[in-house]
Design brief:
The complex is a heterodimer. In chain A, 68% of the residues lie in helices and 1% in strands. In chain A, strands 1-2 form a two-stranded antiparallel ribbon. Among the domains of chain A are: 1-26; 31-243, no CATH class. Chain A has 14 helices and 2 strands. In chain A, helix 2 (33-58) packs across helix 11 and helix 8 (184-201) packs across helix 14. The longest helix of chain A has 27 residues, at 206-232. Chain B is α/β, with parallel strands linked by helices. Chain B has 2 domains: 27-163 and 298-373, Rossmann fold, CATH 3.40.50; 170-291 and 384-418, Rossmann fold. Helices cover 38% and strands 22% of the residues of chain B. In chain B, strands 7, 8, 9, 10, 11, 12, 13, 14 and 15 form a 9-stranded mixed sheet that branches. In chain B, strands 2-3-1-4-5-6 form a 6-stranded mixed sheet, with helices on both faces. In chain B, strand 10, helix 9 and strand 11 form a beta-alpha-beta unit. In chain B, helix 2 packs across helix 11 and helix 11 crosses helix 12 (344-352). Classes of the chains: A mainly alpha, B alpha/beta. Chains A and B meet through helix 2, helix 11 and helix 12 of A and helix 1, helix 3 and helix 4 of B.
Chain lengths: 383, 424
C-alpha cells in the first residue's frame, strides 16, 4: 500500500519540516536587516505564546497574568547586564529559575480557583509584579525601565548571529515543551483540562499538576522575556503590563489553542499584522480589534482549527475520511488522546469558557464532551 | 460559520473596519506632503528623510498628533522644503510601547532611511530607542519626553526641544518664593519619575531661595479620587505646588474646588495645559503655572504660529503643537547651514549649533543637546468666554541646570532619591 495517502503523508511532513527549517536557517541571507529584526521578535513571541499555552490550552486554565513571567525574564537580563558581569549561561539559568519560581507561586495561589476567578487572580498577581517594578525605582528604574542592554559577549556582533542564536534557543525550547507535553506529567496536565474531578478520582494529585503547568509555562515564558530584552535592548514595565498578558491570550486563540503550534502561528500573525497594518493607517487598532471579534465569533478554535475543520469536511465529501481527522485530531474523541497529538475535543478551543458564552461556532461542532467538561468543572464539588 | 448569513456578517464587519481604518491614514494631518508617496517637493540642495515617531494610538494620542500637526503645518507653509532640501516625512506610531517603538525606529532607519527621527512622548520609550539610534548614527530630536537623564551627555546624538522634568519648575521656585512671597509650600505630585523631577526642581530652588517645603504628597498615576490627598494639605502652607498632568489634572482641580481648598495653587504648566483648560474651566481659575510656552507670548514667530494653527485646527495652540512647529524650525535652521547630501551625521552637527526664534522665544541647544529657552509664568483667566493661560511674567534663558553650575548639578543625587526628603 505504498501510495496510500497515509504513507505519502509520512514522506511529505518531514520534507515540509526540513524545507521550513532550511528557510528559517537561511533567512538572514535572504531578507533585509529590518525584517530580520521583526522575524526574531516573532520567534521570541512565538516561544512566549507556546509557553503560555501549556497553562491555557493544555491545562485549561485561562491565565491573564503571563506578562509577569515574560517581564521577570526580561528584568533578569536588564539587571544582570547593567549591574553585574554575569556570563550568559548564568543569566539564562537565573531567568529560568526566576520564571519557574514565579510559576510555582502563581500555581500555588491558584490551586483552588477556576475559570473567571483564576483569570482575575492571575491578573492581580501580575499587576502586583508590575507594581513592584514600577515602584522600586532604585532597582528597576521605575517607569523609565532599564535600557542600554548590550549583547556583547553573547554572540558575534550583528543581527544575523543573534537571530540564529534565538532560533536555536526557541527550537530547543519548543522541542522540550513538545516532549514535556507527552510525558506522564504533561499528559496529566492535559487531563486537568479534560476532567479534573475524574483525574482526582483516579488518584492523581491535581493540585501538583496545576503547579507543574505554571512552573513549566513560567520558565519558558521567562526565557522568551530574556530573549526579548536582549533583542530590543531595553526593559520597562510595559513588559509586565496587562496588555501583554491579554495579547498572548489572543495569540493563542487566534492560532488555535488546541494545537501545539497554534499559539506560535497566532504570534506570527498578530505581530505581522500589527506591524503591517500600522504602517498604513493610524486606525490599525480598529482593524486588529475587528479581527479579534471575528476570531471570537466565528473561529474560536483558531486558524489551525478552521483548517482542520475544512480539511475534514472536504474529506467527508470525498467519502474517504474515517476515524481520526487528517492531522490526528480525533473529532469524536471521548477516549484516549491519539499518540503524539494532545488535541482538545472539537469545540473546546476555549477551555473553561467554552460553555459559558456565545462563542460556539455551530451547534453541530459543540460536542457533548465539551459541554460536560465545562459544566463538570464548574458545578461538581471538589473532592 | 457556513451559510450566507454569517458570511454576510463577516463581510459587513470587515468592510466597516476597513472603512474606519481608511479614515485615519498616515498622511500628514495638516495636508502637507503626503507620507511615503514619492511626491517629495523638489529642493535645490537635495532631499532629506524625516521620521516622525509619535503616539497616534494609546493614552498620549492627543499629544503625539499635535506634535505631528505642528511639524507638518510648518512644513506645509514652506511648500514641503526646509532650508533648500525637499522633505520626505514618514510617520510611525509608537503606541506607547518601548519594544514596539524600537521596531518602528528600526523600520524608519533601515527601511525608509530616515536621516533624523523627531518625536517621542513617553520617556520610557525614549530611553529604549535612544541607544539604538545612537548606534545607528541617526540623530533624535525629542519633542515631548521629559526625563532629566535623556540629555546628560556631551556631544549628544539626542536633542530635545521640550522641557526636562525639572527645567520649567526650577524658575518657579524663585518666582513663588521671591516674587509671589509665598514662604511655605505643600507639594502635591504624581508618584512617578516626571512627578518627582518636576516637584523636585521646584523644591530645590524654592528651598535654596530661603523658603520652606512643609509637606509632600504623592498620588499614583491615574488617581480617581483626589479627595484624600487634597484634604491632607497643610492649611498653614502659603501655597500648594502641584504636578498632575493629563486626566489627573481635571480630577485634582475638582477635588480642590469641591473641598474648598483656599490656599493658592501653583502648578507645572502641563497641569493647566491648553488642551485641558476647556475641561478644567472655572475649577482652575486663578491658578498660576510655569511652562516654556503660552499661546499669549508676544513675538512675531508666535503671531505667525497662532494664526496658522488656529486657521488649520480651529482651536488654541499648545506646547505640543509648538514643540512640533519648533522642531521643523530647528531642522530648517540646521539644513540652511548645510551643503551637499543631507547625511544624519551632517544634520547632527548642524543641529548642535542651531539658534532659532521659535514661537516660545529664542531657543538654542546646550552642549548636552537640551534646549535653552524662556520660561513663562502664566495664570488661568477668562477672556472673551474662553479660558486661557495669560502670561504674567517671564524668566529668560533657562537651561536644564537653571542657575546651577552644570558640573555641580550633575553631582546631585537624582530626584527619585530626593523625593520625600524636601519637607524634612
Amino acid at each position: 500500500m505504498h501510495d496510500s495517502p497515509r504513507d505519502r503523508r509520512h514522506l511529505v511532513v518531514p520534507l515540509l519540516v526540513a524545507v521550513g527549517l532550511l528557510v528559517l536557517l537561511l533567512l538572514p541571507l535572504i531578507i533585509p536587516s529590518f525584517y530580520l529584526f521583526l522575524s526574531t521578535r516573532i520567534l521570541v513571541f512565538g516561544l512566549f505564546a507556546t509557553a503560555f499555552n501549556v497553562v491555557f490550552g493544555y491545562a485549561g486554565m485561562p491565565s491573564l497574568g503571563h506578562a509577569a513571567f515574560f517581564g521577570a525574564g526580561a528584568y533578569v537580563v536588564g539587571l544582570a547586564s547593567t549591574r553585574t558581569e554575569l556570563p550568559f549561561p548564568v543569566v539564562l539559568l537565573l531567568a529560568l529559575l526566576v520564571g519557574t519560581a514565579l510559576g510555582v507561586v502563581f500555581g500555588l495561589m491558584n490551586l483552588r480557583v477556576r475559570g473567571i476567578y483564576l483569570l482575575l487572580l492571575t491578573l492581580a498577581l501580575a499587576q502586583a509584579v508590575f507594581g513592584l517594578a514600577f515602584t522600586q525605582v532604585s532597582i528597576t528604574g521605575g517607569d523609565n525601565g532599564i535600557f542600554g542592554i548590550a549583547r556583547e559577549g553573547l554572540v558575534p556582533v550583528g543581527l544575523p548571529y543573534f537571530y540564529w542564536f534565538v532560533l536555536g534557543i526557541v527550537g530547543v525550547s519548543l522541542a522540550l515543551m513538545w516532549q514535556f507535553m507527552r510525558s506522564p506529567v504533561g499528559m496529566a496536565i492535559t487531563g486537568l483540562r479534560e476532567s479534573e474531578s475524574r483525574l482526582a478520582a483516579t488518584g492523581y494529585r491535581v493540585g501538583m499538576y496545576r503547579v507543574w503547568a505554571f512552573a513549566v509555562s513560567g520558565a519558558f515564558a521567562a526565557l522568551a522575556g530574556m530573549l526579548d530584552a536582549y533583542l530590543v535592548g531595553s526593559v520597562s514595565p510595559a513588559n509586565l503590563a496587562f496588555l501583554l498578558s491579554a495579547e498572548v491570550v489572543v495569540m493563542a486563540i487566534l492560532g488555535g489553542a488546541r494545537y501545539f503550534f497554534g499559539p506560535f502561528l497566532g504570534a506570527a500573525l498578530i505581530l505581522g499584522l500589527e506591524f503591517y497594518v500600522s504602517t498604513f493607517t493610524t486606525r490599525w487598532t480598529i482593524v486588529l480589534g475587528a479581527l479579534y471579534i471575528v476570531t471570537a465569533l466565528f473561529m474560536s478554535d483558531g486558524v489551525l482549527g478552521r483548517i482542520a475543520h475544512w480539511r475534514q469536511r472536504s474529506g467527508q465529501r470525498a467519502g474517504t475520511a474515517t476515524g481520526p481527522g487528517p492531522d490526528g485530531s480525533a473529532t469524536s474523541s471521548g477516549g484516549p488522546v491519539p499518540d503524539g497529538v494532545p488535541a482538545l475535543p472539537a469545540g473546546a478551543a476555549l477551555p473553561s469558557m467554552s460553555g459559558s458564552g456565545p462563542a460556539e461556532p455551530t451547534p453541530s461542532r459543540s460536542t457533548a464532551s465539551a459541554r460536560t467538561t465545562a459544566s463538570a468543572r464548574t458545578t461538581e464539588p471538589r473532592p | 460559520m457556513s451559510g450566507p448569513r454569517s458570511a454576510l456578517q463577516v463581510a459587513a464587519l470587515t468592510t466597516f473596519a476597513v472603512v474606519l481604518a481608511g479614515c485615519g491614514d498616515l498622511d500628514p494631518s495638516a495636508g502637507g506632503v503626503p507620507a511615503g508617496s514619492g511626491e517629495t517637493a523638489e529642493g535645490e540642495k537635495g532631499t532629506v528623510n524625516v521620521g516622525l515617531l509619535n503616539p497616534t494610538t494609546g493614552p498620549f494620542t492627543a499629544l503625539g498628533e499635535d506634535v505631528n500637526a505642528g511639524f507638518e503645518l510648518y512644513l506645509e507653509r514652506n511648500g514641503g522644503t526646509l532650508g533648500g532640501y525637499g522633505v520626505e516625512v514618514v510617520k510611525e506610531d509608537t503606541a506607547n510601547d518601548p519594544g514596539g517603538t524600537t521596531t518602528k525606529a528600526r523600520q524608519l532607519v533601515e527601511q525608509h532611511e530616515s536621516d533624523i527621527i523627531i518625536g517621542l512622548v513617553n520617556s520610557g520609550v525614549a530611553y529604549a530607542v535612544a541607544p539604538y539610534l545612537e548606534e545607528a548614527g541617526v540623530p533624535l530630536l525629542i519633542t515631548v519626553a521629559g526625563a532629566d537623564g535623556l540629555t546628560r551627555e556631551t556631544d549628544p546624538n539626542v536633542f530635545r526641544l521640550s522641557y526636562t522634568g525639572s527645567q520649567d519648575t526650577m524658575p518657579a521656585g524663585d518666582y513663588v518664593c521671591d516674587e509671589l512671597g509665598h514662604r511655605t509650600a505643600a507639594i502635591v505630585g504624581l508618584d512617578y519619575s516626571f512627578g518627582w523631577e518636576a516637584t523636585g526642581g521646584f523644591a530645590r530652588v524654592y528651598e535654596d531661595a530661603g523658603c520652606e517645603v512643609v509637606q509632600e504628597l504623592y498620588a499614583p498615576l491615574g488617581t480617581q479620587d483626589w479627595g484624600p490627598y487634597v484634604t491632607q494639605i497643610d492649611p498653614a502652607a502659603d501655597v500648594v505646588f502641584a504636578v498632575a498632568p493629563g486626566s489627573d489634572s481635571v480630577r485634582f482641580f475638582q477635588a480642590i474646588d469641591g473641598f474648598g481648598v483656599t490656599t493658592p495653587v501653583f502648578v507645572h504648566g502641563s497641569t493647566t495645559d491648553e488642551t485641558l483648560l476647556p475641561s478644567l474651566g472655572a475649577t482652575a481659575e486663578g491658578v498660576q503655572s510655569s511652562l516654556h510656552y503660552a499661546p499669549g507670548v508676544e513675538n512675531d514667530a508666535n503671531d505667525t504660529f497662532v494664526a496658522a494653527w488656529t486657521e488649520a485646527q480651529g482651536r488654541s495652540t499648545n506646547q505640543y503643537a509648538e514643540d512640533g512647529w519648533a522642531a521643523a524650525q530647528s531642522l530648517e535652521a540646521a539644513l540652511t547651514e548645510m551643503e551637499g547630501e543631507a547625511t544624519p551625521e551632517a544634520i547632527r552637527e548642524a543641529l548642535a549649533g542651531v539658534q532659532i526664534d521659535a514661537p516660545r522665544g529664542p531657543v538654542y541647544f546646550d552642549e548636552y543637546g537640551q534646549a535653552v529657552y524662556d520660561v513663562q509664568f502664566r495664570e488661568v483667566t477668562q477672556q472673551d468666554g474662553e479660558w486661557v493661560n495669560e502670561v504674567i511674567d517671564t524668566a529668560e534663558d533657562v537651561s536644564q541646570f537653571y542657575t546651577y553650575d552644570p558640573a555641580e548639578y550633575l553631582e546631585f543625587p537624582p530626584y527619585e532619591e530626593l523625593k520625600g526628603t524636601w519637607a524634612d
